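Customer escalation, tier 2.

The customer says the design service returned an amino acid string that "doesn't look like it belongs to this structure." They asked us to rerun it and document both sides in this ticket. The original structure tokens are below, unchanged.
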């Protein structure tokens, strides 16, 4: 049984998702939501995303790292040579989360069932990593929260859930 494939990402209006190997903004509510949604589910990511995690593999989740390098190993994580092989490792699981980066998102969006978005109200001119365009002909908004202001950064953000149209 193939799992539901959910992409989770925080994105600026111009599609930016990162800069210099880091998130655009570190917003506590966004990080809490990420943890709450992904906890107990496999998380699939690229090597660069794995290497950017400050404490290594995410606890409470099966970590699967995609690398084209067959000899690559990741502490406390499984490795796969492709997105398809990573998803195949999760056969029989109800849901997996794709957590980045840009190349993995671009490959996964065509087969994803759900997009769990954090939308930011601003762009950063030095962003260097981008999410693929979200086609409104393919995706419908299932939930959209109210805009919230992050007290530390002043960034306005909201949570959205998009589902693939049938």
């Amino acid at each position: 049984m193939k799992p539901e494939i959910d992409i989770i990402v925080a994105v600026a209006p111009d599609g930016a998702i990162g800069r210099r190997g880091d998130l655009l903004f570190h917003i506590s509510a966004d990080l809490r939501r990420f943890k709450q949604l992904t906890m107990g589910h496999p998380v699939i990511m690229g090597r660069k995303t794995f290497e950017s995690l400050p404490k290594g593999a995410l606890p409470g989740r099966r970590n699967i790292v995609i690398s084209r390098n067959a000899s690559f190993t990741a502490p406390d994580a499984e490795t796969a040579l492709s997105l398809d092989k990573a998803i195949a490792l999760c056969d029989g699981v109800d849901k997996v989360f794709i957590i980045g980066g840009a190349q993995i998102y671009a490959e996964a969006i065509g087969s994803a069932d759900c997009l769990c978005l954090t939308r930011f109200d601003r762009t950063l001119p030095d962003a260097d990593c981008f999410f693929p365009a979200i086609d409104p002909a393919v995706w419908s908004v299932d939930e959209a929260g109210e805009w919230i202001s992050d007290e530390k950064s002043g960034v306005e953000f909201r949570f959205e859930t998009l589902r693939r149209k049938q």
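Tier 2 assessment: The sequence is consistent with the input. The chain has a mean pLDDT of 96. Residues 28-38 form the longest helix (11 residues). Sent an explanation to the customer and offered a walkthrough call.
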